[in-house]
Design brief:
Layout lengths: L2 E9 L8 E7 L6 H11 L4 E5 L8 E6 L4 E2 L3 H12 L3 E2 L2 E2 L3 E6 L2 E10 L2 E8 L5 E5 L2 H8 L6 E2 L6 E4 L3 E7 L2 H6 L4 H8 L11 E5 L7 E8 L4 E4 L3 H14 L5 E9 L7 E10 L2 E20 L1
Parallel strand pairs: 2-3, 4-8, 14-15, 16-18
Antiparallel strand pairs: 1-2, 1-20, 3-4, 4-5, 6-7, 8-9, 9-10, 10-20, 11-13, 12-14, 13-14, 15-16, 16-17, 18-19, 19-20
Helix pairs in contact: 3-5
Family: Belongs to the PhzF family.
InterPro entries: Phenazine_PhzF-like
Pfam families: PhzC-PhzF
Length: 305
């Protein structure tokens, strides 16, 4: 019998019971993947993390990320929340916890910077582990069917719906305003049809839709649906926000620029989240993407396996 400790935090918010909840499980070195997956399914959060000792002692930890149905290579809110939890400790695996952490993950090495106020960790900033990858296009009709809206509500003046990734792939589509965004309802059958046998290289078919105004193009309101992963809607999706932000900056006319995007998500669920994304573009190429957000602790407990 093994007893594991866990902490839950709400990520991308400073208010308890808003943002995106995350469970961070410690002491799981002896657990197999199947058991980790069962624990993730039990929590039913969009993701939970297991913090293991690093393979390379130069790094802080090996972090495994699970949705209710599968292990994934990278995600935004699990990294921000895990860093926040570890930042509350004086040491991890026998080493002092410093303001810069390095997580080993399936997508690669993820660097995290802790943000402190009065010496107390309040937030974290992570760097996306992979460069922007632009995948296959998605038809407007597919997007419309998946979320039950008229295809005319999907804009293509900036880009057509398309898969993008900086570590985890999402289909992204721009809608014509908050009303269309609020009307979206995921349809499981159409998501299954969209995924098909290979899902265009995506882990199932996760759809990130957003709206913005011409006056404030870098302030975005978004929703993310992943019903095939038992996540009908996600309150905050850092990896999707980062991928979309990198893509939009890549399309901007400036060849060299630094942009900060603010993405509001989870409003329709009653779990408002604020995600900040900083994108650096040099000579027409996005070279750096970072995701920032605040966190707040919620619960502590034990799991017996």
């Amino acid at each position: 019998m093994t007893i594991l400790s866990y902490t839950t935090v709400d990520v991308f918010t400073s208010n308890r019971f808003e943002g995106n909840p995350l469970a961070v499980v410690m002491g799981a070195e002896e657990l197999g993947t199947e058991t980790m997956q069962k624990i993730a399914a039990e929590f039913r959060y969009s993701e939970i993390t297991f913090v293991l000792s690093p393979r390379d002692p130069a790094n802080t930890a090996n972090v495994r990320i699970f949705t209710p149905t599968m292990e994934i290579p990278f995600a935004g809110h699990p990294n921000v929340g895990t860093a926040y939890v570890l930042g509350q400790q004086k040491e991890i695996f026998g080493k002092p916890v410093r303001d810069t952490l390095r997580f080993e993950e399936r997508a690669g090495l993820v660097e995290v910077a802790l943000r402190r106020v009065g010496g107390r960790v309040t937030a974290a900033t992570i760097r996306a582990p992979r460069p922007l990858d632009i995948g296959a296009a998605v038809s407007e009709e597919t997007v419309a069917r998946c979320i039950g809206i008229d295809s005319h509500a999907i804009l293509n003046s900036t880009h057509q719906p398309v898969f993008v990734s900086v570590g985890l792939s999402f289909a992204v589509a721009e809608l014509n305003g908050p009303a269309s965004l609020g009307a979206a309802r995921p349809n499981l059958t159409h998501f299954q049809d969209a995924a098909g046998p290979n899902a265009e290289g995506n882990h199932d078919f996760s759809l990130f839709v957003y709206a913005r105004s011409p006056e404030e193009p870098w302030t975005i309101r978004a929703r993310m649906f992943a019903p095939l992963d038992n996540v009908p809607e996600d309150p905050a999706t850092g990896s999707a926000s980062a991928a979309l932000s990198a893509y939009l900056v890549s399309l901007a006319p400036e060849q060299t620029t630094t942009r900060r995007l603010t993405i509001e998500q989870g409003v329709e669920m009653g779990r408002r989240s604020i995600i900040e994304v900083d994108v650096v573009k040099k000579d027409g190429v996005v070279t750096d993407v970072s995701i920032s957000g605040a966190c707040v602790p919620v619960m502590r407990g034990e799991i017996t396996v």
